[in-house]
Every structure is written in C-alpha cells, then in structure tokens.
Design a protein that fits this description.
Layout (H helix, E strand, L loop, with lengths): L2 E5 L4 H13 L3 E5 L9 H9 L4 E3 L6 H10 L3 E6 L6 H6 L1 H21 L4 E7 L23 H16 L6 E7 L1 E3 L18 H9 L6 E4 L11 E2 L1 E3 H17 L9 E3 L5 E2 H12 L5 E4 L14 H7 L7 H20 L1
Parallel strand pairs: 1-2, 1-4, 2-3, 4-5, 5-6, 6-11, 7-10, 8-13
Antiparallel strand pairs: 9-12
Helix pairs in contact: 1-2, 1-8, 3-5, 5-6, 7-9, 7-11, 9-11
Amino acid sequence: MKKILITGGNGYIGSHTIIELFRNTDFEAISIDNYSRSHKNTLDRIKKITNRNVKNYPIDLRNYKNVETVFIENPDIVGVIHFAAFKSVPESVANPILYYDNNINSLLNILKCCDKYNVGNFIFSSSCSIYGNVNKLPVTETTPIGIPESPYGHTKIIGEDIIRNFVKTSKIKAMPLRYFNPVGADNTGLNGENSIDKPNNLVPIITQTAAGIIPKLTVFGNDFNTRDGSCIRDYVHVSDIANAHVLALNYLLNNKKTSNFEILNLGTGTGVTVLEAIQSFEKVSGIKLNYAIGSKREGDVAAIFSDSSKAKQILGWECNYNIDDMMKSAWKWQQQLINEKHI
C-alpha cells in the first residue's frame, strides 16, 4: 500500500486531512509530529472516526538524521503533505528567531529527503497572510505578495520561494495551497481545532465564549467600510480544506504533464463579516453570545476574500459547507471537549 507522509499530522488541518484521506482513498498515512503544539490523543480521534491507524514519529523536523530515518523506514512514501509549522502570529512577533528556525529548517529537511529518496509529490501548507494588505478584491494567485504583517507570514513567503527554486533542479512536483480562514470541525464532532495556543481566531473564541470559558467576545471595530462595519474574512470549513489536499495529491500523482510548481488559493470566494459570523452561531446554537464592540486592532484590514476559481478548474474543488455548517460543527466539537472534561 502506498504511503502519504503528513507532517503535523496531529494538528488541526493535518488531522482532518488524514481523515479525508482515509475516507476517500486507500492510501496509508504516516505522521511526523513531536506534540510541541498538538495533543497525543488526536490519533485516537482519527482511529475512532475512520477505524484506521496512523503511525506517528514524534521527532523534531529540525533534526535531519531523524527525518531521514522516516524515509529509510518507509521506502513506499509517494507523497508528502507538509503542515508542520508554528503558527501563532503574536508569538512570532515576540520570538521571530524561533519561527524562522522551526518553520524554515523543517521545510529544508523534508525537501532534502524528498529529493534524496525520490518522493516526487509535495504539497505545502501556505497562507493567505502572505498577501498582506490588498488593494483589489477578490484575491487571486496573481495578486502581488504584500509586506508580511508578522514573522509567521514571512516564513510562508520564504517557504514558497524555497520550493519554487528547489523544483527547478529537482524532479519533484510541488503545490503550495494558500488557505484563507479554516474553521469548523469534523461533522462527527469528534475532531476539531484544539491548539495548545491561546485562541486568536474568531470561531474558537465564539465557541469558548458560548461555553463560558471566555467571559466576553470583543468585536474589534464596527466602522470599517463594510456592509455592517465589521471586518470581512473568507471562512472555509476545515473539511473542505482537507478535501482540497486529497484532490491536490491525486492531481500530482495522476497528471504526468502537470507543471512542477502550481499555487492555488483555497477559500469560499465570499466574505463573511464578524457580526454575520456571530449571528450565524447564535442561529444554529440557540445561544445569545456575550460580546462587545471594541476599538480596531492595528494591522487589521477591512476585507479580504479569495477567488478560488483556479482550484476549481485544476482540481475540481468546491466548498461543500457554508457558514452555518461551520458554526454548527465547531459548536458540536466544543461540546465534545466539554463532555470529555466531565467524564
């Protein structure tokens, strides 16, 4: 059975991608995740949902010899999906060297091993954060790269550049996928976002506010030039994001004439305001959220959303879930976490 190596397989998007891989292919999945930003029980969640096991190597990707051991022990790896990276924007601002060291050196070691052991298909977890402040919407793959707002965003720009130059002298085909705002959870409610970092994203803050973990949600600004004054973002269900990785993997494996470097945006193509997201949650949960309007945050742009027509054209990818689905699944997951703590 052919194997797919998922780095960061215990993380939010990595674990959902393994679930989608098991649901839609007969590939075996192996993971590299040292649990520095994830939970060990995530693989148990995957097993409960899919009834399939994932072997995980709890190693630091910055250690080349340990990474090479994974490739030596698994000569049947045919593709790599590289998620593993630190991703907290505030932490990256406070400790930039940590982020450059971890995110860049991990990528370099994986690419070295792919080249040495002839693993010819590589998918890179990139981000819409590389666009920075944009002048024209929607954002396409040809939108100019902006000045990154954080060292985290800068590591994604550097990562794409490394891969772009690397494939020029390698037989590897690579596909960086630029996500917009992944949210939600698996529809079973058994797996979702469970970062050890303090939540900085809207949806986990919404669900934790509803659960009483966070006392009050702050809406940062209501005087942006948008339809209700709050920021617009492109929220996309994590299972749709995961499905795009499975489609991208099959595309690279099955299309011999494909370009060896193709970048794709992954978003719904429609923006949702912060207040609309709150209203959606209140509708599907029946809970009135405790929130207040605060002042704008420095660096927040009024609106950003994706043109994902290229992903549809190349991969046949479309989003299956809307904002209500995202909120419903996220709340189901939050309730699962609450129940587990009381068992």
